[in-house]
């Protein structure tokens, strides 16, 4: 297992590398003040959807309606047409409308994990993203495919599910890095540590990486 100093060094190198990458779709939404609702909606749109599609779909929807009240008034088909071609847009449109209705009745976007998980279609990743990017709560680590994959490749953890990854990361990463961890590693995963054909030769943290030292190096030695 990596030491705390090694983990901190890797996070700093990933942060340095990520400065040259385009902001993630959710980071763009989160840059707008008082936006917990928009973060929640954008996160629902983003599920199984590429970042550039999420960003464009979110903008189309929010240009028409950006509050719970306005979105709740729309019919789900109108919402759906705005968020296409996001994958599963019909299901997402229905859920967005229903969540908007509930939040409009409540008068606030929940700021606890338990409350957020009561919304249909909201899992731990989405809830953590809303807490971190929508409410500015520091001590949560949203785990998506990139945040699950990269620490496993590095050899920090050995987990099979995002839920187990979340628990494992919280036990080894200093808390001061939790709030930035998702955005940094999503950006790094989209640009360098890709799911298929990772750019190991361009990676600034390869010397710390178990995958690079074993799978990648061995594969390229045989070529």
Query: Which runs of at least 5 residues are low in confidence (pLDDT < 50)?
Result: none
CATH class of the largest domain: Mainly Alpha
Q: Give the radius of gyration.
A: 18 Å
Helix-strand category: mainly alpha
Distance between the termini: 30 Å
Give the overall shape: elongated
Q: What is the CATH fold-level name of the largest domain?
A: Endonuclease III, domain 1
Key traits:
single chain; 223 residues; mainly alpha; Endonuclease Iii, domain 2; Endonuclease III, domain 1; 13 helices; 63% helix
Structure description:
This protein is mainly α and 223 residues long. It has 2 domains: 95 residues, Endonuclease Iii, domain 2 (Orthogonal Bundle); 103 residues, Hypothetical protein, domain 2 (Endonuclease III, domain 1), CATH 1.10.340. Helix content is 63%, strand content 0%. The protein contains 13 helices and no strands. Helix 1 packs across helix 12. The longest helix has 18 residues. The radius of gyration is 18 Å and the shape is elongated.
Question: Helix and strand layout, with pairings?
Answer:
Layout: H1 4-18, H2 25-30, H3 36-46, H4 51-64, H5 68-73, H6 76-83, H7 89-106, H8 113-116, H9 124-134, H10 145-154, H11 162-172, H12 178-191, H13 210-221
């Amino acid at each position: 297992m990596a030491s705390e100093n090694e983990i901190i060094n890797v996070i700093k190198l990933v942060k340095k590398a990520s400065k040259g990458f385009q902001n993630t779709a959710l980071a763009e939404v989160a840059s707008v003040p008082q936006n917990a609702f928009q973060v929640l909606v954008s996160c629902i749109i983003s599920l199984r959807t590429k970042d550039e599609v999420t960003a464009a779909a979110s903008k189309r929807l929010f240009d028409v309606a950006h509050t719970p009240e306005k979105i709740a008034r729309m019919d789900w088909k109108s919402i759906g047409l705005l968020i296409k071609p996001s994958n599963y847009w019909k299901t997402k449109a229905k859920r967005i409308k229903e969540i908007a209705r509930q939040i409009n009745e409540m008068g606030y976007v929940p700021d606890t994990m338990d409350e957020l998980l009561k919304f249909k279609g909201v899992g731990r990743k989405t809830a953590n993203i809303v807490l971190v990017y929508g409410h500015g709560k520091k001590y949560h680590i949203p785990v998506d495919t990139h945040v699950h994959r990269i620490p496993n490749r590095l050899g920090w953890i050995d987990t099979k599910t995002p839920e187990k990854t979340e628990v494992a990361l919280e036990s080894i990463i200093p808390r001061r890095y939790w709030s930035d961890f998702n955005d940094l590693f999503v950006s790094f995963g989209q640009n360098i540590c890709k799911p298929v054909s990772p750019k190991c030769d361009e990676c600034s943290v390869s010397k710390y990486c178990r995958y690079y030292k074993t799978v990648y190096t061995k594969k390229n030695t045989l070529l």
